[in-house]
Amino acid sequence: MAQTVQTTAPVSTEVLSHPTPLHEFWLAYRANKGALIALAYLVILVLAALLAPLIAPHSPSEQFRDFMLTPPSWMHEGHARFLLGTDELGRDILSRLMHGARLSLMIGLVSVIVSLIPGIALGLLAAFYPGWLGTAIMRLMDIMLALPSLLLAIAIVAVLGPGLVNTMLALSIVTLPSYVRLTRASAMAELSKDYVIAAKLSGAGKVRLMFNTVLPNCMAPLIVQATLGFSSAILDTAALGFLGLGVQPPLPEWGTMLAAARDYIERAWWVVTMPGVTILITVLALNLMGDGLRDALDPKLKRLA
Fold it and tell me: What pLDDT, on the 0 to 100 scale, is given for residue 17?
């Protein structure tokens, strides 16, 4: 009797090694070289901000009276102690930029979180209750969007008074409508899908449908919007500081540094250029990272390496 020989087909390593969602996200993100460079810059900036008390050459408020308006170290008449030069009071610009990063990043992060959480809640309410409640929420957001964001922030700070906390509160209120509208649009697109209908038929309540079923599938555009909102918050913070309505001296906030240095732009260009370039590069990096997140999180735009 003939013996049957069983052969085992070779198992492809590609089948066994399914990439995890995090790995897929990283492959798609790193395909965007600009976003990768932006991420590296932001990691360095965050580390410099967190470690500023340890690695900054000098205290941000220490004044060197003998070195007022000293040029950067690579220029003629520069000094090796001050890599980026000093300001009109003899304070080290590099140290102030590093400590200022802590303020700018904190303001951006807090304002995004404070506006994102109520924005998600109001957007979900507007999507699940499209009657009078949803209409009232969206009309209020339309009124807020009818005003220029910076003008509205200036009005809020003028009423509450300048300062760190009031600046974060004003920026949170200004950016709230964008999160509400985006959450509502994303949630309404999900409500007609089969998995939501199945959850309704299984007896899921409104709260469970909102936060357990629909919200996780709306997070991708919200993450991208939060990244772009982070850059807008840093820019608006600098604008308020430049107008004297944001963080008050002697705190080393980037916009406040620009406002204090505008009288010296002709004879000490570095006093204005260094914080201005820092704001420019940081906002550009956040926008590039937002583009990379959009490409990596949107299935239609993924570019796998």
Answer: 52
Site of tokens 């102030």? 96
3-class state of residue 17 by DSSP: coil
pLDDT of residue 44: 94
Q: How does DSSP classify residue 58?
A: S
In 3D space, the residue among 266, 275, 211 whose CA is nearest the CA of residue 239 turns out to be 275
**How far apart are alpha carbons 156 and 147 in whole angstroms?**
12
Written as six digits, the tokens of 177 are 């409508």
Give the SS3 label for residue 158: helix
- Cβ neighbors of 264 (< 8 A, separation 6 or more) are 69, 88, 271, 272
| pTM, 2 dp | 0.83
Place of tokens 């997140």: 293
Classified as helix, coil or strand, 86 is strand
Note the pLDDT tens digit of each residue in 135-169.
999 999 999 988 888 888 999 998 888 888 898 99
> Which pLDDT does position 300 carry in this prediction?
53
Q: Which two tokens stand for residue 138?
A: 């969206």
CA-to-CA dists, residue 275 to 46, 126, 149, 259, angstroms: 16, 41, 23, 10
Q: Which amino acid is at 79?
A: H
CA distance from start to end of the chain: 54
- Please say if the pLDDT value at position 57 is more than 60: yes
User: CA–CA separation, 81 vs 32, rounded Å?
Assistant: 38
